[in-house]
Amino acid sequence: MVLKQDPKAVQKLNEILWKITDPVNSEYQNWLTRSEINRILTLDYQVLTAVKYWLWKQSFKSVRLIGTDVFEIVTTIRHVQKLFSGQFRTYKNSRTGKTIHRTHDDVCWANEISHLIDFFLGLNDDTLTNSKPTGSSKKRILIPNDGNARDAATTQIIPMIVPPSVRLCYKIPDVLKTGLESNVSQGALEFEGQNYSEEDLQIFCEFLGIPFKPIHTEGINDQSNPGIETMLDIEQMMAINPLSKIWYFNDDVKNIISDGILIKMLTLTESDKLPQILSISYGIYELNLCVPGIPCDQNVVDPKHRYFIRTNIEFIKLALRGITVLASSGDDGANDYFSNCTNKVFNPTYPASSPFVTSVGATTLVNVQYNALQDQPLACSAFNPPLVCAYCGDEIAVSVNDPFFTDFTSGGGFSNFAPQPPYQKHAVDRYFLNEQYYLNEIPEMYPPSSMYNRKGRAYPDVAALGVNAFTVANDSLYLVGGTSMSSPLWAGIVSILNARSIKITGKTLGFLNPLLYKMAKECPECFNDITVGNNKCTSTICTDQCKGFQAACGWDPVTGLGTPNVENILKYITELCEKKMKKTEYN
């Protein structure tokens, strides 16, 4: 049961957020603690008393307050049916075996506290299937035991992406040689019961010459059943910064029943100890967000929009604590997985479309170079051609006509729910600056304006390689792709940037977007601008009817601001942080 929050308290959170995440503000990096945030959001005593009294009268089996405004209620099906006047049925997930009880009817209710309640979860929302990995099983190539992996359609060389490849392309320091300037941490947030295997991770480290270190686990983990999604997430972030502490989050240890994004985020925001960076490789389409039960007299606001707003507040809480959240932008372009390209509007991916996370798109290499890598890992010599480690090359946006990988398209577009945040207005305005010229000269440069909300939150923010990552999962070797490769790569990079920031200011970089867009304006050489590719097609269909966006100079809804030049970003951050400290000392 999600209670309404005080609009003034939420407004205050927003005001604080934009101050402490703005690099030019004197309060930049003055992160809050969890208790400080909860004190701002604490509900009026009379409201809580009224709600608790009503809950006591119901004689539920158990009631637990989560944070300041959400109650977890456990009771019988019979009791719920009576309370909501609905017929509940049992549903079993054929893949996971999990059972839930839901009504397929619209749920609304009215009683003496209905005016205090935002919505209910766990009545008619499907919490087991509302999230989808952005790196699906289609986007992988199994490497047979003889090392001769061949694409069915071609016998050309298949470029394998290993950590030295990424470091070379993005000028990332090798922390195993340079060391880390500060202790840092990063974590993968998993859904759908995805597990990891320590044994797989050890094999991965051996192939790549990375020192193995145990992972900090929060929740439940069945090492006998590792998921390729989880292994990709953990291995990619560890590969870029093997000296960072790695966290893994699965199902909530408190046994909250939902695997939905809101409850997952609530669980996180109620933890005092969290990693400095969280990477999310899952997405829900905005139109598919959980439709919760709401009070009968409050159908004014779209329930999906209400759920979206409420979940964003949890992302704000993390941002206020100086925690970076990265989210994959999706693997079905501007459309969605279920689209047949006859749709009249695009269906953006959430949480990539949230204004309070950093959304990451995917690129791939063309004109690939195959020079010998410095400190070439075992993975580069263990297999026979056509598997060859990439040295580097030219980057383009991932699209279905990519010659090496034809099973996904980098997600991007504009939110239908969230307004465009101020930090990206300049970059997005530039994207539309020459719209009329392109519509006359190259009509396909922009999709029909009726298909998207050009005033909405634009995504992705940045991009990174998303094709053919060397991966070990379930005692097998794979090349795996998807924007869920790109997001954890950025996590590893940000952990290195955090180490520099912590050394100078004692603080993490936190919510990145205001910094990233300011940096792109002042330091264009901090990004590799991607200008080739589009996201018209989905991972399942590509016809002449498919619409989408084109990569362009500057920010675009395919690869965002581009991919990182970490060497230049480190210089920029160093100067920014040192300037901040001089101001602080002067004041």
Verbal overview:
It catalyses: Release of an N-terminal tripeptide from a polypeptide, but also has endopeptidase activity. Residues 160-576 form the Peptidase S53 domain. Pfam families: Peptidase_S8, Pro-kuma_activ. Keywords: Calcium, Hydrolase, Metal-binding, Protease, Serine protease, Zymogen. Helix content is 30%, strand content 19%. It has 587 residues and is of the alpha/beta class. The chain folds into two domains: 2-119, no CATH class; 132-586, 3-Layer(aba) Sandwich (Rossmann fold), CATH 3.40.50.200. The strands form ten sheets. Strands 11, 12, 13, 14, 17, 19, 21 and 24 form an eight-stranded mixed β-sheet that branches. α1 (7-20) crosses α10 (303-320) and α9 (261-269) packs parallel to α10. The longest helix is centred in the C-terminal third of the chain and has 23 residues, at 483-505. It is globular, with a radius of gyration of 24 Å. The model is unreliable at 127-131 (pLDDT under 50).
